[in-house]
Amino acid sequence: MGTTVSIELGEDRPEAELGRLITEVCDWLHEVDARFSTYKADSEVSRFGRGELRIEDASADLRHVLEACADLWRDTDGYFDAYAGGALDPSGYVKGWSVEVAAARLLAAGSHDHYINAGGDIRMRGNHPDGGPWRVGIRHPWEADKVSWVLALHDGAVATSGTYERGDHVVNPRTGRPAQGLRSVTVVGPDLSIADAYATAALAMGEAGIAWLAKRAADGYDSAVVTDDGRAFSSANLPAAV
Amino acid sequence: MRRSTAAAVGTLTGAALIIGVRLSVTPPEAPAVAAPVGNLAGATPAPKPSSKKPAASGSKEKPAEKEQEKSKSGLKDGVFKGNAAANPYGKIQVTIKVEGGEITDAAASYPTANDSATINPPAIAALKESTLQAQNADVSAVSGATYTSESYVKSLQAALDAAKA
């Protein structure tokens, strides 16, 4: 996926055990990369995209991802679009989903206190090693070494999409033109794959995304937004640290 | 990049705290369901249906029940339901209670199931505008649009990881 993953386990367990847990997470993420990378011509998603693989012969993971992308396309009025760039590219869902799965596996293996940060998209559980919630900063959209909000969470996901990294890379699928209006969109909620997709969709919507995000709060997805002209918006229940 | 941290927090403590936290993460949903019950009776949604089926219509609507006692206001005692007024999100129905010719109570029912429950009550929901902060805070992790390994190297998260490793 061409991204860097940071993992922190906050448990009092033998170093070897913790090391094994981390190795398992890394193995899973590499497996996902091999299957879903659009940069690898022989990945399953590339073969499916070229029509060389029938849906019936696809892995359960690929079928799940395609279904989830279709659901999110409907839930976001078409603004989350795995085909936005023409060819199939479900990376916008795969990253959050793979981390969500990795975190669930950590929990199943007895890790109650951890976070995984994959390229700025974070899933966390339990406590910080010093006790209390994990404190997550949201990167300031103009000053890379500053944060614009600090969140305090024990259990949940935080995903941020922004135009400040790749410039006009995010395309509004309705117009085919680069998304404009919002510079940074952060969504906080129970599931990282959903939070990530919502953040991407809202960014593609532009300013209309602010009102769209407000409605997601009722489903447990809070948000924090910075517009191109530097205005900041956040939902009432955003778990901001005091 | 990869790292593990051994901590003084025991697993049992961790598990107990997680339960506490789940509650604190869930609240966003709670107001949507809880608030309406008391609030909406006299609040915004009520006026619309009640203007279609005004309180006074109780007597005009059912002329058949003439033998029932009427007061000077023309309102019969009893509990009356207006016709359900449909809107795109469901039906709203106003109920009034008349005692001694006066309306002593009014309530509006509104959809609480499916999509309607989430769309109706928090319809006023909007994101609040605030001043954009730029702080140097003590954080465990940073959420940001970091798309490449190259941009990770320059990120605040990388600095945090380096500091902890």
UniProtKB/TrEMBL annotation, chain A:
InterPro entries recorded: ApbE, ApbE-like_sf
A GO term for molecular function: transferase activity
Superkingdom as given in the UniProt entry: Bacteria
One Pfam family of this chain: ApbE
Cofactor section: Mg(2+)
Keyword Magnesium attached: yes
Keywords assigned: FAD, Flavoprotein, Magnesium, Metal-binding, Transferase
Enzyme class: transferase
Catalysed reactions, semicolon-separated: L-threonyl-[protein] + FAD = FMN-L-threonyl-[protein] + AMP + H(+)
Magnesium is among the record's keywords: yes
EC id: 2.7.1.180
Name of this protein: FAD:protein FMN transferase
Highest classification ranks of the organism: Bacteria, Bacillati, Actinomycetota, Actinomycetes, Micromonosporales
TrEMBL record, chain B:
FMN-binding domain ranges (all copies): 88-163
Basic and acidic residues composition bias: residue spans: 59-79
Pfam families: FMN_bind
Region annotation Disordered: where it falls in the sequence: 31-84
Protein name: FMN-binding protein
